[in-house]
Amino acid sequence: MFLHGGWFHVGGNMLYLWIFGDNVEDRLGHVRFLFFYLLCGVAAGMAHIFANPHSSAPTIGASGAIAGVLGAYFLLYPRARVLTLLPLGFYFQIIELPAFFFLGFWLLIQSISGVASLAVRGEVMGGIAWWAHIGGFVVGAALGQLLKRKEGRRGW
């Protein structure tokens, strides 16, 4: 969870953490956010191992833990708007999209890639732990759902 494959890998993860993590951390508090983040990362690693039990490739990066943050954000702030860079050929436009749509599309891409990775077992699939992303997102969303329920009663 604390090793990365290069500066672009770190930068991409930190961009998502910067955009989505601060709101989830504000909701949880610093200490609970740390435990939440680490739990999502461990769960993401377990999802990857479950989906790829015979893989000998090492997994690096915080993507699974950050996917957990995305899952929590998906449930806690679905109507929030996310500034998004939309490529239109050689032209780029910045638009606002609802977080629900942005993160739903992200999860769809991860899911399609995850299923495709199961179909090509033993072959290289870009070296990306798709199931870690999916597992982290699902655990983060489940914990986010618990947070929403408990906030209705007393707070988490």
Provide an overview of this structure.
There is one protein chain. The chain is mainly alpha-helical and 156 residues long. The chain has one domain (7-51, 59-79, 100-153). It has five helices and two strands, in the order αααββαα. The protein has helices at 7-28, 30-51, 63-76, 99-119, 130-153, and strands spanning 81-88, 91-98. The chain has a two-stranded antiparallel ribbon with strand order 1-2. Strand 1 and strand 2 (91-98) form a beta hairpin. The longest helix has 24 residues, at 130-153. The protein is globular. The two termini are 25 Å apart.
What's the SSE blueprint?
Blueprint: H1 7-28, H2 30-51, H3 63-76, E1 81-88, E2 91-98, H4 99-119, H5 130-153
Antiparallel strand pairs: 1-2
Helix pairs in contact: 1-2, 1-3, 2-3, 2-5, 3-4, 3-5, 4-5
Structure described in brief:
The protein is mostly helical. Helices cover 66% and strands 10% of the residues.
What is the spatial order of strands in the main beta sheet? 1-2
Residue fraction in strands? 5-15%
Distance between the termini: 25 Å
User: Which oligomeric state applies?
Assistant: single chain
Q: Which keywords apply here?
A:
156 residues, mainly alpha, two-stranded antiparallel ribbon, 5 helices, 10% strand
